[in-house]
Amino acid sequence: MAFSQVITGTLDLGGAKCIHGTWDAAAVTTGTIDIRGTLGGTATKIPFKLIGGNVCNSVSATAPNLLWSDNGTVALTATSGDTGTWFILLK
């Protein structure tokens, strides 16, 4: 299987937005959380500035390594088979 992520919701924080979801690294150790939409099959740039976020794991005791990008993606390295939740704050 491959890495998967699902956006489960958004919250309006009075001028900021929180997008949150789940991730699953089934039989892989790397993956990308992507909150960008697509237009004509091409990823679009998010119209907000990334101001923070976190990725939590629920299986392994080893925290995922994260690489944040201002284009709306988070690359992570985790323990194979781990799952968890994530959130990204935008302004």
List the helices and strands and how they pair.
Elements: E1 3-12, E2 17-25, E3 30-34, E4 38-39, E5 42-43, E6 50-57, E7 65-69, E8 73-77, E9 83-90
Antiparallel strand pairs: 1-2, 2-9, 3-8, 4-5, 6-9, 7-8
Structure description:
By secondary structure, the chain is mainly β. It has one domain (3-36, 44-90): Immunoglobulin-like, CATH 2.60.40. It has no helices and 9 strands. The chain has strands at residues 3-12, 17-25, 30-34, 38-39, 42-43, 50-57, 65-69, 73-77, 83-90. It has a 4-stranded antiparallel β-sheet, with no helix packed on it. A hairpin with a 4-residue loop joins strand 1 and strand 2 (17-25). The radius of gyration is 13 Å and the shape is globular. The mean pLDDT is 87.
Protein traits:
91 residues, mainly beta, Immunoglobulin-like, four-stranded antiparallel sheet, three-stranded antiparallel sheet, globular
Question: CATH class, please?
Answer: Mainly Beta
Range of strand content: over 45%
Which architecture per CATH?
Answer: Sandwich
Let me know the largest β-sheet: 4 strands, antiparallel
What is the overall pLDDT average? Answer: 87
Spatial order of the strands forming the largest sheet: 1-2-9-6
Tally of distinct domains: 1
Give the helix level as a range of percent.
Answer: under 10%
Q: What's the CATH topology label?
A: Immunoglobulin-like
Order of helices and strands: EEEEEEEEE
Low-confidence stretches: none
Distance between the termini: 34 Å
Q: How large is the radius of gyration?
A: 13 Å
Structural shape: globular
Tally of strands? 9
